[in-house]
Design goal:
The protein is an alpha/beta fold. It folds into two domains: 3-114 and 364-370 and 380-384, 2-Layer Sandwich (Enolase-like, domain 1); 118-353, Enolase-like C-terminal domain (TIM Barrel), CATH 3.20.20.120. The protein has 15 helices and 13 strands. A seven-stranded parallel beta sheet has the order 5-6-7-8-9-10-11. The chain has a three-stranded antiparallel beta sheet with strand order 1-2-3, sandwiched between helices. Helix 5 packs parallel to helix 6. It starts with a strand and ends in a 5-residue tail after the last helix. The model has no long low-confidence stretch (mean pLDDT 97). Bound molecules: (2S)-2-hydroxybutanedioic acid and magnesium ion. The site of magnesium ion (MG) has 4 residues, from loops.
């Protein structure tokens, strides 16, 4: 089989919060008529420069056209040459590599008439426990709005949440206190996510305040600046709670292992540049004796289906993972979205081929945008995923 063309389609899809995220849907065409689909999810993060879609499409065509899609390792290696790793969490090159690697897996599995799960050595589970995100409180007035989010999502079966913290600790505390008062043991807050906002000492002060409200806390996430391995290690020795951090480069993962910086690796294909790279990171974690969870950038259904296949194949996921992207957006570009039930992300049926989700061309047209250029958004909106300036 040979790749005959690459198509990139940009879409802009609003969240329920009003924030519009731009994603790129990938199609890899083949000489057998089979099309692989992938997703470069959520380009709407800093740094605030935009990718030239036509230039990217031309570049990817020059790498992929005429190639055998089953040469997944070789193609991934070439992708790293073209879009190198950096030591930055939201490196756009990783997003690009991820979309291409998703689509290669979809194409190859469809050609073999199997689901992507079979390419990963099958499944150790069929569903993953996940949490719904509560975005960062900036003002006290946001506490009641977020309590309403908990009420609504609990009704849908999401009983585990993750709280972004660190900007207004009084409001973080007030929120936790309200959750405890109204929901008691019905609701669990599995993680306090500092998103690298604070230095480790300030994070330590906040952790002491916030862990007074342990509502099923499983981990503390990103409580030091990016790549501050020593800071993470300091905190790890101070608190009884596991420390988790995202993996955004293999060098960074190596340092986190060497410097005993974390207990749990938060692994997402988008941040490490594909399913192939994410598997490598998860296996490295396992060899180092660490757990991992699946993280998220808030993908649409294609990216989330890819993560569901991955997560259901990994033996070292023991705690609650993060992918609930499709629940955050007002729309999607597939015929049937991935499904959530009782707070679990269900992997697509194994009888379905490839990633197990099908593009809906009408929806693709509905959400299509001309390019990835930035609208008039502020840094705070980008960081806190809100439409309010
Ligand atoms: C989001 O898009 O909401 C997330 O990627 C934010 C984050 O934690 O980076
Ligand atoms: Mg994101």
């Amino acid at each position: 089989m040979k790749i005959t063309n690459i198509e990139l389609i940009a879409v802009g899809i609003p969240r329920h919060t009003g924030f519009v995220n731009k994603h790129v849907i990938v199609k890899i065409h083949s000489d057998e008529g089979i099309v692989g689909i992938g997703e470069m999810s959520d380009f709407s993060h800093l740094p605030r420069y935009s990718i030239d879609l036509h230039d990217l499409e031309r570049g990817l065509r020059s790498v992929f056209i005429g190639r055998n899609p089953f040469d997944i390792m070789q193609l991934n290696q070439e992708l790293v040459d073209h879009f190198p790793e950096t030591m930055y969490y939201y490196e756009k090159g990783s997003f690009i590599r991820n979309g291409m690697d998703n689509a290669l897996h979809d194409l190859c599995a469809k050609c073999l008439d199997i689901s992507v799960s079979e390419m990963f050595g099958g499944r150790v589970r069929d569903k993953l426990k996940v949490c719904y995100p509560i975005f960062r409180h900036r003002f006290m007035e946001e506490v009641e709005e977020n309590i309403q989010v908990v009420r609504n999502r609990l009704e849908q079966g999401f009983d585990v949440f993750r709280l972004y913290v660190g900007k207004n600790i009084d409001a973080d505390e007030a929120f936790l206190s309200r959750v405890k008062e109204e929901f008691g043991s019905k609701v669990k807050i599995k993680s306090y996510d500092f998103s690298h906002l604070l230095n480790w000492k300030d994070a330590w002060c906040a952790i002491k305040r916030l862990t007074k409200y342990d509502l099923g806390l499983e981990m503390i996430e990103s409580p030091a600046p990016r790549n501050d391995f020593e800071g993470l290690n300091q905190l790890r020795l101070k608190t009884d709670y596991p420390i988790s951090e995202h993996v955004w480069s293999f060098k960074q993962q190596q340092e986190m292992i060497k410097q005993e910086a974390v207990d749990i690796f938060n692994i997402s294909p988008i941040f490490i540049g594909g399913l192939t790279a994410a598997r490598k990171a998860a296996y490295a974690a396992e060899v180092a004796g660490k757990e991992c969870i699946l993280g998220t950038t808030q993908e649409l259904s294609i990216g989330t289906a890819a993560m569901a296949h991955l997560g259901c194949s990994l033996t070292n996921i023991l705690k609650t993972s993060d992918p609930t992207g499709p629940e955050l957006y007002i729309g999607d570009v597939v015929k049937e979205r991935v499904t959530y039930q009782d707070g679990y992300l269900h992997a697509p049926d194994r009888n379905k081929k490839g990633l197990g989700v099908e593009l809906d061309e009408e929806l693709l047209d509905k959400f299509r945008v001309a390019d990835l250029s930035w609208n008039d958004v502020s840094v705070h909106q980008l960081q806190d995923r809100t439409s309010i300036k």
